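Page 37, top half.
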Amino acid sequence: MIVIDIEKLLKEEIIISEACLTGIFWNDPNLYALYPEDKIDRKTFLNKHWGFFFGLGRYMSKQGVQVFDDISIVKYIKDLDLEDDYEEYGGFETVKEVMIEVQDKAENVDSYYADIKKYKLIKELVILLGEKVIEPNGKYDYHHLNKEQLYTYWNDKIVKLGLDGDAKYDEHHLLKNLDKVVDQWSENPATGLPFYNSKKMTKICTGWDYGNVYINGGFGGSGKTSFSFYKVVMSCIEKKEKLLVIANEQSVEEFQKMLLITAMGIIATENEEKGFQRQRINEGNFTESEKAKLQKAVEWVKKLCEGEEKLITFVFMENYIIEDVKKLMRYYANRGIRRIMIDTGKPSEGSASMARWERFTEDFKEIYKLARKNGGGLNLAVWVNVQLADSALSHRYLNEHAFGDSKKIKNEASVVFMSRPVWDDEYRGGKNELKVINYVPAAADNKFAKDGYVAKTIHLERDKTYYVLFTTKNRRGQDNKTGLKVLVFEVDFNRNTWTEVGWTTIFDDKSY
């Protein structure tokens, strides 16, 4: 239980910020919509009377009250049966005095909000860890730290308690139990989640497995997110795998639109139906036919996920900072979500202590430390979309040099995919026409068949869109340097479908 004198101290230190924030919100009730209840409510306040008035204000705001005065308040106090509490806390005069005082201090709302959140954290830390939280210790003084710094400081302390100096190392004997592990590998194959509608891509790296970081590189605006949505998000929905999406470019509404576009595309392709014009989802005013297609897509998704509406968790980050990413990864991993897609990975914002490429490399080291199976990791399956450097737009062959100065990020990944559109001269009849091979089942009497399959040559027609997928690095199998061919997809962006066509060879021309 929290020590009473500490509780009193904290209440005294935060009371001004609690009063001022409440006064500002009562002067402008529209602020309640900008600071939702899951971020701050009456329980966030240490002083009950300011928590009471703040909560009362939120309730009145929800009822549409735009001006808070003693007359409008009386009605809601009676409706909520709060007359006794209202009188005990001094009634309207208590807030009115503060409302007048903060009339010209609205620009400080974020500062007051941050203080209140900080002291709520301090109270919870004291309950958990005791009075040491408020005791100065060397350079540590809670007065001089913000909420995030306090969280990081005490989180590191707790982590160190659980991990002694040797916990980062897992000792094993390489030659021990070899006969047993062969049986284990046979019975428990190291296969990951298959990519949606992609046997060939899945075969490359045996799927998206835990304990690994996968990088998907693509040029800006070229379909990185669309590709990842079709191959990764749709697979998680189909296989009922929980997924956390950490986004910093597209909103949840944009992802929902992409989900329904993809669903309609899959339905139309399977049934050979006329599709839905993608731009119409933004234009609105749907026709009855369009509404029917959208509703059919909704029902299809519900059936696919079997009603598990919380299967995909979406978190939007206004500012991409690796420490915040790590907190989210830990938080949701502790709640059973061990598949994570980051869209889009980039150097942490606000870091001026090192070059962007160096910061990016360090960020990926932190992501890998959390993803790995051993060494204190959380055994996560992490998929990170990364934008390739514009300088690589002229590269026919893609490898780590397409990351520009950040090429070292590949060191932390088990698998690195990179994609680009097929170039004009690579289509049928072009100077550098790609020879695409797909292996199809052969007739029983075909003497040229190999393992029951025969190679079929496919020409890339100019009235279609194709992408090539490079496997730049692959700890789980071959990559393009060690003999793996480049995978070709036919892409319909209107439907957001990515269909495997076959394999091709693109030689490394050393143009980087």
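Page 37, bottom half:
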Amino acid sequence: MIISRPALAVHSPISNWPKNEQPREKLRLNRAVTLSDAELLTIFLRVGVKSKSAVTLAKDLLHHFGSLPRLLAATPEDLTRIHGVGLSKWSQIQAAYEPVKRSLEQSLECRPYFLFPEPCQRVFASQHWPSTP
């Protein structure tokens, strides 16, 4: 079964948008922290589908999975049920996510968080853990 939420607006290619509204330009001109989750995801998706820009597709994915952590934890089978997402896009998302995950794991290994309860509690309290289905 293919799952898709119809685009709410008329499709306009991102290249037709004002430069300061295009995700890559916003990233270049500002900092990554200024971009929404959908805009950051758009940069990895690169292109949308015939009826949806990459931004709309990214918003649909986030809406469908409910959060960025749940989207990142999605299996290829879960993700490819979404119209416009195939193994290539799943691979792009996973390839973008894995270096960040490894960097965080290495960072945690180098710090003595677990020697004292307070820092450990702060780390875990700040996490947005995906709920299990």
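Margin note: The longest helix spans residues 87-110.
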